[in-house]
Amino acid sequence: LVRLRSRLSRSQNVFGKGLLGLLSRDHLDEDTWEEIEDSLITADVGVESTREIVDRLRERTRVLGTRSATELRSLLAAELVNALDPTLDRSLKTAPKDGVPAVVLVVGVNGAGKTTTCGKIARVLIADGRTVLLGAADTFRAAAADQLETWGSRVGAETVRGPEAADPASVAFDAVKRGIDTVVDTVLIDTAGRLQNKVGLMDELGKVKRVVEKHGPIDETLLILDATTGQNGLEQARVFTEVVNVTGVALTKLDGTAKGGIVISVQRKLGIPVKLVGLGEGPDDLAPFEPAQFVDALLG
Ligand code: GDP
């Protein structure tokens, strides 16, 4: 945990330092407020959220007569946590019910980190004593299935894959069937995310969803979002929410960006809780998302 926090803090340093500098000014003039606003926007908090947060912060500091930087920092932290709605349920639905495995559908654009995140989640679950099966429903690139299989053998999970260019829906169906037959706890299904063609993606993902649901309801549909793609990525993400019922977001590559504020935009724009954050390429570089902890790291 300490390692993850330090990794996150390191990546947020630019943002944190800039803000702390502003917060420690003893004189909060109009320029300073503007600079605070700019820092939040630069960190990808989003224009609307930033305005709201700064307006509330200004009002609070006025009412409270805030003078000290420490006080201001904690007021800002409170506003950021509040913007993340700390009351949301962020648990990943991976527990089997009555001996039937939980099914997690993993979606997102190519390169966002779907396969890696599947591997990391499997790792966490297996370390917790659960059994996991991976389904390689990204059948368009043989390398994608290979990569998932490599993760599978690394963390101790069986991988179900089809022949090259197989129907993704049929691989997903077979994976869940195999999971039921072998009584595993959780089936994680990795999908393809070709966004060139929205209709094609809708057809394909929609079909994967419908076919998997023949076995029973999907417990979790996790959208993988690359934090470094900023507001653009957010627009692409919206397409997925139109096709499948996204129940949670995993925000990846937060280790390489000072734009961690994207978490706030994601929740506001998509209305879906961020449940996990990816903090590196390694098997242990995944953490549950905790608003207070995250904001603390964000502010440096
Ligand atoms: P997919 O196409 O969505 O399945 O994406 P991949 O899982 O293949 O990931 C694409 C690249 O991003 C790979 O090189 C991963 O190692 C890398 N990656 C995934 N998650 C993270 C993360 O949290 N941090 C960093 N730095 N790299 C990541």
Descriptive report:
This protein is an alpha/beta fold and about 300 residues long. About 50% of the residues lie in helices and about 15% in strands. It contains eleven helices and eight strands. An eight-stranded mixed β-sheet has the order 3-2-4-1-5-6-7-8, sandwiched between helices. Strand 7 (about 275-280) and strand 8 form a beta hairpin. The protein is elongated, with a radius of gyration of 21 Å. Bound molecules: guanosine-5'-diphosphate. Guanosine-5'-diphosphate binds near residues 108, 110, 111, 113 and 280. The site of guanosine-5'-diphosphate has 18 residues, from helix 5.
Helix-strand pattern: HHHHEHEHEHEHEHEHEEH
* Percent of residues in β-strands: 5-15%
Number of helical stretches of at least 4 residues? 11
Strand order of the largest sheet: 3-2-4-1-5-6-7-8
C-alpha geometry? elongated
- Determine the mean pLDDT: 88
Radius of gyration over alpha carbons?
21 Å
Q: How many angstroms separate the termini?
A: 16 Å
Give the biggest sheet.
8 strands, mixed
Strands, total number: 8
Parts with pLDDT < 50 across at least 5 consecutive residues: none
Ligand types: guanosine-5'-diphosphate
The helicity comes to 40-55%
Structural category is alpha/beta
Catalytic activity: GTP + H2O = GDP + phosphate + H(+)
Organism: Micromonospora globispora
Enzyme class: hydrolase
Membrane topology: Peripheral membrane protein
